[in-house]
Amino acid sequence: MNLQELSRELSLCLARQVPEGLWGSGVGWSLVLCFGVAYACYYLSSIAKKPELVTCSKSFHHFLQDHCPVVTETYYPTVWCWEGRVQTLLRPLITSRPYVQYRNELIKATDGGQISLDWFDNNDSMCYPDSSTRPTILLLPGLTGSSRESYILHMIQQSKELGYRCVVFNYRGTAGENLLTPRTYCASNTEDLEAVIHHIHSLYSSASFMAAGVSMGGMLLVNYLGKVDTKTPLKAAAVFSAGWNVFDSIDSLEKPVNWLLFNYYLTSCLQSSVIRHQEMFGKLCNINLVLKAKSIREFDKQFTSVIFGYSTVDDYYADASPFRRLETVGIPVLCLNSMDDVFSPSHAIPVEMAKKNPNVALVLTSCGGHIGFLEGLWPRKCTYMDRIFKQFVEAVFEHGSKILNM
Ligand SMILES: *[C@@H]1O[C@H](CO)[C@@H](O)[C@H](O)[C@H]1NC(C)=O
């Protein structure tokens, strides 16, 4: 008997019990039990699944199997909270916020602006007491995010245990620092990221170096990697819940439910950073229209695309879509996406393109939502994404030579 038949059988048994109506005499309990078993069958057959691992490189595949086995294991989403949107909404509320003390550094950008970096030096590292060779991970948060996001704090927690150093790149205007020039950030312009990477590398040129980007941070990272090919000090990169085609992501976020749950809120977060520096932007764009925007697309049309010199918002979205750059990524990159992520619709995941570049591995789960990946009954401490992050960075730093010369 397969699982579907079993659950049908169980619901029939349920139906037979109900008319008796003998709650309290044990029948009620068997009803509950039947429901429980039916749910368990459904969960095990349709929810808990192994992720699909897409890569055309045998050596990358073996490398992941040996050193990052979590990508080949069944992902068991939290039983009471596996649906994509629910995971997306609940993850920031449920997961803990590990305490992290940063050392802030402001660096100068070529346009006269400043970029705020938050360092987690990990000077107590047992494995790497010498700071000049301590492996370093650059972390890129998502849209409107900063070093205070819980997913960033968790990645730092994982890195701390391994003895590594982390640096969080706070996009201009997101970490409370002042803007010195009328410029914020976007997913296509990689100048600030390049400056940050070269700054970190110039400080610790003997330390192994990699980067991990989440959501928009992941898009920015892929856009950078696609431009520089192998001309980067980064050894490898991890990308979580990135949108691959901005047009598809934005269309999905404009569906009424998604607009209500995510789009409207994010738009107001974007606007609040503009309000703080209104005068500075007044000459470049129409602030009234920016503040009237009711969606990310309207905001990008009135603000982001204008600030970064695109003639239309579509030009910006085309340039910001990382699927175009995947072909020329020259270092190993592991990308995790869930098929039920409303920020990154599954039909836009560049599976065929990933099969053409041996540097790329996609890990595709059926559940997990956007930066959700909750697992366990009460998922406070560690998500599936955190475990992939931890195993992958350890794999790269401790065994990386095995994939670097593919
Ligand atoms: C870690 O050590 C370096 C010097 O090796 C120092 O500049 C830095 O401030 C220290 N970080 C913390 C958080 O104490």
From TrEMBL:
Lineage top rank: taxon: Eukaryota
One Gene Ontology term of the molecular function aspect: phospholipase A1 activity
GO biological process, one term: medium-chain fatty acid catabolic process
Compartment(s) where it occurs, according to its Swiss-Prot or TrEMBL record: Membrane
Primary subcellular site in the record, as a coarse category: membrane
Residue ranges constituting the AB hydrolase-1 domain according to the UniProt record: 135-376
Membrane topology: Single-pass type II membrane protein
The keyword Thylakoid is annotated on this UniProt entry: no
GO cellular component: membrane
Function: Phospholipase that may play a role in phospholipids remodeling. May selectively cleave myristate (C14)-containing phosphatidylcholines through its predominant phospholipase 1 activity, cleaving preferentially acyl groups in sn1 position. In parallel, may have a minor phospholipase 2 activity acting on acyl groups in position sn2. In addition to (C14)-containing phosphatidylcholines, may also act on other medium-chain-containing and oxidatively truncated phospholipids.
Protein name (Swiss-Prot/TrEMBL): Phospholipase ABHD3
Lineage: Eukaryota, Metazoa, Chordata, Craniata, Vertebrata
